[in-house]
Design a protein that fits this description.
Layout lengths: L1 H4 L5 H10 L6 E4 L46 H7 L2 H8 L11 E6 L10 H8 L4 H12 L4 H12 L5 H6 L18 H7 L1 H9 L6 H4 L3 H11 L2 H24 L5 H22 L18 E10 L4 E9 L5 E10 L4 H18 L4 E6 L2 H8 L9 H11 L4 E6 L6 H9 L6 E5 L4 H13 L4
Parallel strand pairs: 3-6, 6-7
Antiparallel strand pairs: 1-2, 2-8, 3-4, 4-5, 5-8
The chain binds zinc ion (ZN).
The site of zinc ion (ZN) has 6 residues, from loops.
Amino acid sequence: MNSLLGSNPSYIWKSIWSSRGLLEKGCKWSVGSGSSINIWNDFWLPGYPQRKISSPTILGLSIVSNLIDPTSMQWNEVLITSSFSNEDVAAILSIRLPISPTSDSIYWVGELSCHYSVRSAYKLLCVRDEGNTNLSTLYRLVWKSACPSKIRILAWKFIWNYIPTMLNLVIKRVRQCPQCPRCNSQVEDSEHAGFRCGFNQEVWHKLGFYWPNQVNQMQFSEWLQWMFTKHTNYQHAKIITTIWAIWYARNKKVHEGVTQSTVEVVIFIKKYLSELRMSMASLTHHSVRENVRWIPPPATYTKVNVDASFLLSETKSITGIVIRDNEGEIIGAAYQINLNVANVFEAEALAVTQGLVFAEEIGCLDIILDGDSKSIISKLKNRNDDLSSIRLQIGTAKSIAGRFRNCRFSFTGRQGNQTAHAMARSGRSASEDRFWLEEAPSSVLTAAAEDRRLLDPP
Ligand SMILES: [Zn+2]
């Protein structure tokens, strides 16, 4: 996925959040290297309510990494004490810096009472253009098309022009020349990269897609809307897969110097779609086994791993959640802190419920939820009402599960649940809930990389 998203996979979310003013509604920076965080304008101080540095701006200090000693990787206390008010100094020094190099990340903060609800990426998009019902419909259709999430996400990025086209790179001052790397004759904006470039039009035509001249002048979102209204739901998956494949081939040319012909791109798309349909058809015969290692979900599904860490002495539990696509790429991750938890079973049941809610909120439709508590998973699979002490939690989890288009539960051994385990562990010393999109703490990323390494070679 990284190859498609460029060097910054969270670019899209950061863009949405900053543009929507959502940072004020509960998003915060977690300090890693400090190089992406603006000292004065970003929310990065701990505690409630959200607040920025209140001390007056000092020239020469701009990013948080300026405040970190590059050798010891600890706060430069002398500099900090001499630059900020006592209140800011205390807040900054209370932030624990990572021991190993970690990049900065954005997360949502939730109070223990969950006042900040996690909004789904999909809902965010609808809110973003709530006046425009056509666009909301388009988002819904993109989201519902039977494709892996990376393909749907790329289609969204095209719609919002969050694609690193040559023109966007010029605007971001990364490049100087906005010309299309394919035809070298026109500016590469998202319309050109999606459908206007001669090369891309040839691919579209070979796949049987045509549009009139006036449609060719449309903006990307209007063009896609036109394409969707002219074609069946079945074809929508083909349309956005084609956009993805065209962009993929373009990146191969730009970054690896590999030039494919239009015929090769067309063959790739057809093969990819037929494999996708086969894997979906086989799904109906697929029985969920007990897994000893992490098993990726089928192509259009997402896998939700949950685990609970129970602290008996504090009657407190921490839920760890990691949501991944069929290639093992992280879509979402979270830990949530629960107080007044009676026992380990209640903790495990809460983990399942919270995993389901998080998956629903980030817009997953077809999920497989993996947990390593055999008794909880078997209770969830049982069609009869549960009569145990945790019947309430089991009932809640079952009713949330019913809101997905597809939801299956499966038991996994510890080995298959390492990411969620690491997630719950990383929340042990935390005082607030945290949610990530397309990112996770480094211990979880390490576990996820290990899971990917163990996947069968393609
Ligand atoms: Zn071109």
